[in-house]
Each structure stands twice: as structure tokens, then as C-alpha cells.
Design a protein that fits this description.
Two copies of one chain form a homodimer. With 398 residues, the first copy, chain A, is of the alpha/beta class. Chain A is built from 13 helices and twelve strands. Chain A folds into two domains: 147 residues, Aspartate Aminotransferase, domain 1 (Alpha-Beta Complex), CATH 3.90.1150.10; 232 residues, Aspartate Aminotransferase, domain 2, CATH 3.40.640. Chain A is globular, with a radius of gyration of 21 Å.
Chain lengths: 398, 398
């Protein structure tokens, strides 16, 4: 009898964003330039003062930090959150290894094996991976590209709620759809979690990047304090993805204490990028104005180009740096692979994320792709030239 | 009905090493100097060339690295392992967020809920935490301070093996005992895992620190290649605990592929300390000679002082930087707290780790403590002065 891997190791999905990587590498080896719109890795420079803070930090020993993160950093973060009208203390923050670990801690601390968590789909694909690690069942409720991916109606949530439902995940503004939930929609979520006694896990990685209105944090919802767990990260707001620094924040003391035990088991978050994160709190106020203006320009360019293509529909995303587009194709997995394997336009091609990986319900998203507008306007235009040319010759029409 | 945390959040043990921290903080506030022998945080300086490599690394964007870690680092690591007679390729390595994540990946990729893993106790307490996260059952088999914590006899393993047993964990040299498993003992483990078709998870965080003979890696065991998963870290060998860089290494392709999916879900390991780790591979060969000599001096000092105290027994540890000592006390948890709360010797005291947290079998370790000899000889002597004085006046004799 051969040794076997675990069932969860078998069921664990390969990353829908990264599984095309070998095809991209092969294209590059053939000399083809690949525009990466498949992954949320911004080309925006990490603020120099933040990088310099790490360079200039003097130490003799690279020690473990506190399991909850450096106290100086947590104290500083209080002022960052205060600027966002989020009122917390340093002791309500656990610094995590990226937003990823904050999500995992939330699932582990609040949910047990077999518990259910409701997530509007399409959703960030790695929630599936964390759910499998925590042996939790994801119950998707569908939002549609036709409605611009607005929050599904309250009835859809209530239909999905069972005795095993323990939480709702909301990502606002949303990855992959770019949808920005309104204050009214957040209030709706509050009513649901209060009525059914659920946790509200709020992934707010893109808080700063809202182009059509203000951001409503789950932490703003009065009366839901015990229900809300904020899962945050510095990856996107400061273009610091490689630092792996996030935060787990809640006013629910029992949840915080439980999460802290998971934090202690892994000893501490990475030290270096905590220095970077601490310096970032001191960035001038125009940092986000400038960054946001740049992303807005990219979004406007991308969305305009997409909707000008025959058979393509892209709702205007209100936040984050993603857009979902419906394409006249048979199968987005095949199409995205074909773009890398069999297509080029003037020596260039484009890498996209098939939307199927963001839906939990089989069959959904087959003619949709996610585009991350993380490249500059010139590159986006060239990437759109590629897509436009590709759609004219792709053999598998939808 | 109030919101409830998860059962695993409730069952998750608080860190036995860190739970005394508030008492240490209170002692310090009273002006008492505390010698920290409770935690494996070395005072040995991180090599300057490694810290400088990070300082001098130029980048514009702190990007995600590859989910398996930077390729340049993995290539470099091959030569590090080759020096240790471990023959691997860059594609057999996944860089992890500390050794902690490597352990978690191993549990997640190889074991399912309810599966059993055998670990000789006392063992690194956080294995319990990772087991709870993976919903895996730890089956301890006892080693004893009288035998210096040698590997329990083969019959003890075979008595503990059931149809649910899937793995054995071996930490060599051992935390918390400092025991260095001999080649013969490692061969015994090989026979067991081959006969019963089990995984052998090898935690070799202290590989370089062997004072009484050579290190036998689980990766040296011929014919067990598919069974062995190496869980490694740079934390101890380069005094780089805060970097959070480890490695998950196996020649079992199915296990590696499964672990890679968990690695993709969390996107990437921290970028900065990969630079440090890469530079560390180029350290001159005498780096470990010098570091080892320093630790050996500390060990010799500590063990001699302990065994000179009335009623104290400390077997000579062959590796790592920990020693276990049997003390003439009633309860090591009470004693360690009392040292911080109610004792001082010339304005100083000592923080130790109660051994109970390292045993899974209730009642074991009540008169034992773990001492990490991570401070210099002068501090160790002063800490031993404190312990000697404390044992004379501690009211709860054993």
C-alpha cells in the first residue's frame, strides 16, 4: 500500500490565478511579451520612505516580535484606523502574516469542522483554500455581472442560512468584482448577522481604493461590534505584497483571545515588514489621493476599452483594482490558456484569470474573466489591443 | 444566545512558554532584572553580512515572491543542504513562513481529521497547536529524564500504532530535551515507518548545534525517501527568528504537490528574510564552528551548575540549546510563576518554562523545567545563582 496524501490535500484547489503560470513561462521563453493582468501584484512603487525605514533600521539580533506584532506598530495603527473612523485599541489588533493568515485565524477561531460560511460569489478564490484547511463548508450565493455584482437580496441569504451557518464573508471593495458595497448594503448585512447570530468576516484589503463613493467598513456598523472580525493587510494599500503583513481586528474579546492562541502557536509575524508598515502610517495624506487617482485612470481606460469591444460587457467597478468582464467565448479556462499557448499580437499577449475559479457553483463564470488593472495605462492599452485582436481570431466563440 | 468561538479555539492551548509573560512584565515593572531562559530566542548576533544583505537590497516594489519562495534562494539552499549530505533539488523545497508553517503544511497535506501522529514526549508544545488546527490526534509515547530522553523502545511505538496512525514526528536534536538521536535510533525510526507505512516528519531546526556526535538527518535514511518530510527553519541557525523563514522539503512528489497548494493559498512567504537566508548560505564555514563553541560553553556551564545544586538532576543534552532539569519542587507551573511573582535574589530573578507544557500525558513533567541556554555565560551564571537561591527558599518542596 502506498502512502497517501490527505483528503484535504487532494481536495485543495490549485490557485486559479497561478495555475496558468507554466504557460506564461513557456510564452516568455518563445520571446513573447506577456501583460500580467491575472494577479493583484501592482506595479505602483512601494513608498520609498517605507523601504528606507527597513534599510535604516538598526538591529543586532533579528528577534521574534510579540506574537500579536510589535507594540509600537500596533499603537501606530490605531491612528491609521482612526483616520478611517475605525475606533480600536492596540490590544484589539493581532498583526498577521498577510491578510491570508488573518482569514485563516478567523475561520479557525470562530468556526468548527462542518460549520457553514456564506459568501457572495464570485469571491476571492483562496477563501476556498482556507475553508478546506479549517474543514468549513462554503455556501455561495450568487451575484451577477448584469447587476454589476451588487449584494444579493436578503432572501437569498436567508434561504442559504441553516443551523450550521456561523458566518458571512464580505470583501469590500470586492476582489474579484471591484464592487463597492454601499452603506445600505452593509447595513443589510448587519441586520442579517444580528438576526441570525452570525459572525461577519470583513476583508477590506482595498479600503483606500474607492472611486464611486465612500467606504463603509464593517467596523462602522453600530451594534454589531461583537459580530465583526476585520481581516486586513498592507499588501495592496502600500504595494507591499511581499512583506506579508496583515491584521486581525475585533472587539469580540473571546474571539481575539482564541485567535491569539493561534498566533502564539506560530510564534510571531515577520519582523521586517512591520517596520515598513509602521513607517507607512506616517505617509502624507496625498499618498492615497495620488495612488487612487492613478488606479482610477487605469480603471477608466480598461473599462472603456473593454466595453468598446464587440460582445464584451464590463460593469464599472466602484473600487479595488479588479474588473470582471463577460467575453464572447466558450470557456474562459480554455481561452486564457489559448492566449498564452497559441496566440500573439505583434509579439505580445495577455494573461488573465478565468472567472470560473472565483465561483463556487459549477458552470458559473465560464464566459467571464477577471482583469487586475495593476499595470500603467500604456501597458493596459497594449494589453487591450491584444485582447481585442484575440477575440477576433479565437476559435471557441461563445 | 451569545456568539460562540469554535471548539478548537477553546481547546487550543495557550503557549506554555509565553503564558508567564505577564508575570515577567510585572516583575520588570518592580525593577527586577529577569533572566530569560524560558524561550529559544538567542542573544547571538544575527550575522552582519546577512543583515546587510537586506539593507543593501534594492527594489522598487516589494512584490510577492513565488509561492514556493524565490528561485534564487531555493537554488542556493541546495548547496547548503549538500554540505549536510542532503541531496535535493530546488523543486523539492517550499520556502515557508518559519518552521511553524512547514509543520502545519505537513500536517495538512499528509493527515486528515482524526488521524493520529505519534510523538515522543516531552515535545515542542506548539505541535499541539498545529495538531488542533489540523484536527489531528497526538499520541505521545514517553521518554524519561532518567534515560536522558533517549528514543523510547520500538515496542512503545508499536503499542501506540493503530489503524489511524499516519505519522511520527521526530525533532532532532530535540526541543525541549536537547537529546541528539543517534544514527541507530534514526534507523529504528526508519524501520518503524517502513513497516507500518507511516510518514516521518523531521523537525531539524537545530541541525548545526550537535555537541556529542554527528547529526543524522531523516533525509539520510536510505529507502525512506517517500516517507520523510523535513521541516526546517533558519530561525535558530542564524539567530534570525524574526525573519519567519523556514522550509518544507520532501522527495515525495504527491506530498510536495499537495503542500504547494497550501502554499499558493497564502500567496508567498515573506520576501525580506529570504534575502537574509540567501546571504547566509555564503557565510564562512567557521560561522557554525564559532557559534557551536559558544553554545557548548554555555551548555557546559549550565549543566554543571544545575547538577551541583542539591536535589537537581540535569542530563547532559547532546544538541540544540535546551536542557531539561528535574528540580526538588512540587509543581513547576507554580514554581515558575513564584520565581517571577514572589522571589528575587539581589534584585534579579529567572524565567523558566514549566515542563508540563511539553508533556501530553497529564501529570508528567510536574517537577521538571526547560532551560534555554540562549544567554551568555555570565548571564547564565547569574541566572543559576538565582535558581540556587530560589530552591533554598521555595515553600513548595517536591
Amino acid at each position: 500500500m502506498a502512502l497517501e496524501i490527505s483528503k484535504r490535500g487532494f481536495e485543495m484547489p490549485a490557485s486559479p490565478i497561478r495555475k496558468l503560470v507554466p504557460f506564461a513561462e513557456a510564452a516568455k521563453k518563445k520571446g513573447i511579451k506577456v501583460y500580467h493582468l491575472n494577479i493583484g501584484q501592482p506595479d505602483i512603487e512601494t513608498p520609498k520612505t517605507c523601504l528606507d525605514a527597513v534599510k535604516h533600521y538598526d538591529m543586532k539580533v533579528l528577534e521574534y516580535s510579540h506574537s500579536a506584532g510589535n507594540e509600537s506598530y500596533r499603537k501606530k495603527l490605531v491612528s491609521y484606523y482612526a483616520k478611517n473612523n475605525i475606533d480600536i485599541t492596540p490590544n484589539e489588533i493581532i498583526i498577521t502574516t498577510g491578510g491570508s493568515e488573518a482569514i485563516l485565524f478567523g475561520f479557525m477561531a470562530c468556526l468548527d469542522a462542518g460549520d457553514e460560511v456564506i459568501i457572495p460569489e464570485p469571491f476571492y478564490a483562496n477563501y476556498n483554500g482556507f475553508a478546506i484547511q479549517a474543514d468549513v463548508v462554503v455556501k455561495p450565493i450568487s451575484s451577477s455581472i448584469e447587476s454589476g455584482f451588487a449584494l444579493p437580496p436578503i432572501e437569498d441569504f436567508e434561504k442559504a442560512i441553516t443551523s450550521k451557518t456561523k458566518a458571512i464573508v464580505v470583501c469590500n471593495p470586492n476582489n474579484p468584482t471591484g464592487y463597492l458595497y454601499s452603506e445600505a448594503e452593509m447595513e443589510t448585512l448587519k441586520q442579517i448577522v444580528l438576526k441570525h447570530n452570525l459572525y461577519l468576516f470583513a476583508d477590506e484589503a482595498y479600503r483606500e481604493f474607492c472611486y464611486e463613493g465612500a467606504h463603509t467598513s464593517a467596523m462602522h456598523l453600530k451594534g454589531a461590534e461583537d459580530h465583526v472580525v476585520l481581516m486586513d493587510t498592507i499588501s495592496k494599500r502600500y504595494s507591499a505584497c511581499g512583506g506579508r503583513i496583515g491584521a486581525f481586528i475585533t472587539k469580540n474579546k473571546a474571539v481575539l483571545d482564541a485567535a491569539m492562541k493561534f498566533a502564539q502557536a506560530r510564534l510571531s509575524p515577520p519582523f521586517y515588514a512591520q517596520i515598513l508598515g509602521e513607517a507607512a502610517v506616517d505617509l502624507p495624506d496625498d499618498y492615497f489621493d495620488n495612488t487612487k487617482a492613478e488606479y482610477k485612470l487605469r480603471r477608466d481606460t480598461l473599462v472603456k476599452r473593454l466595453n468598446a469591444m464587440e460582445g464584451v460587457f464590463c460593469p464599472n467597478p466602484g473600487g479595488a483594482f479588479y474588473a470582471m468582464a463577460k467575453l464572447p467565448i466558450d470557456d474562459s479556462d480554455k481561452f486564457c490558456q489559448w492566449l498564452l499557448e497559441s496566440f500573439e499580437h505583434e509579439g505580445q499577449t495577455i494573461m488573465l484569470a478565468p472567472a470560473t475559479g472565483f465561483y463556487s457553483t459549477p458552470g458559473l463564470g465560464k464566459n467571464e474573466v477577471r482583469l487586475a488593472y495593476v499595470l500603467n495605462v500604456d501597458s493596459i492599452n497594449k494589453a487591450m489591443d491584444c485582447l481585442e485582436a484575440a477575440l477576433k481570431v479565437y476559435p471557441g466563440k461563445g
